[in-house]
Write a structure and sequence with these properties.
This protein has 74 residues and is mainly α. It is built from three helices and no strands. Helices cover 80% and strands 0% of the residues. The longest helix has 21 residues, at 52-72. The protein is flat.
């Protein structure tokens, strides 16, 4: 179950990143938040017991970290 959830999370992130027509209009902070949320969801589902709460928590933390890293990168 965990492996399936991680694969689905990464596939969703890839689809979002490649299919989003407004990707070029996003700021670095917004792009960082999207990538961080996807990575955080994958890590959260693997670290925890695979529950939705762990996945959402990982996505939230990853999104915040990705936003801050993107904001401070020039």
């Amino acid at each position: 179950m965990r492996k399936t959830l991680a694969i689905l999370s990464l596939a969703s992130l890839a689809a979002l990143a490649s299919g989003c027509s407004t990707w070029d209009n996003l700021s670095r902070a917004e792009k960082g938040a999207v990538i961080g949320a996807g990575a955080g969801a994958a890590v959260g589902s693997q670290v925890g017991d695979g529950s939705a709460l762990n996945t959402l928590g990982g996505a939230a933390v990853g999104g915040v970290i990705g936003h801050e890293v993107g904001r401070r990168t020039k």
